[in-house]
Design goal:
Radius of gyration: 17 Å
Strand order of the largest sheet: 3-5-4
Structural class: alpha+beta
Strand content: 15-25%
Order of helices and strands: EEEHHEEHHHHH
Number of strands: 5
Shape: globular
Length: 176
Amino acid sequence: MGSSVLLPGGAVLLSVPMPAAHAVTLGVFLRSGSQDESQATSGISHFIEHMVFKGSERYTAFQIASLFDVIGASVDAFTTKDLVAFTVKVLPEYFTTAADLLAEMLLEPAFAPELTALEQEVVVEEIQEALDTPEDRLHDAFAARIYGGHPRGRPILGTPELVRSYGPDVLRAQHA
């Protein structure tokens, strides 16, 4: 069905061939999610997930989006209590380009101050949407009831006050 290889540094490479598929998907799953955050850094994993799309050391946010668009890639990301994941789906002939660009985003994010401030407001709006959505409120209330003071009991998105406090230096330190 599939195979796995343990890479230097502890990363695990999994592959699942799908002969009928015309595209390939690369997923990077980081073994750190909101449950690994302190009370003071609640929501930072999710915020960093957003920020890696906002530019790297070599590319602006617009260039990253354009480079993915040129090769027809579909890119997505999500944060859970257990992990942060990034996926890119692309035709096989563009796999190396997509993998290199995703690696650039994940390993060398710019954390530009002006884009950090803009993205803080985007995430604060996302938090407000979750507060206005009954099923999200129910899920968060259920997690808080089940896990109490444990980090799994906190919302993945954090709070507006905390998100607004995450400047470039805090993001770089957490990313490292």
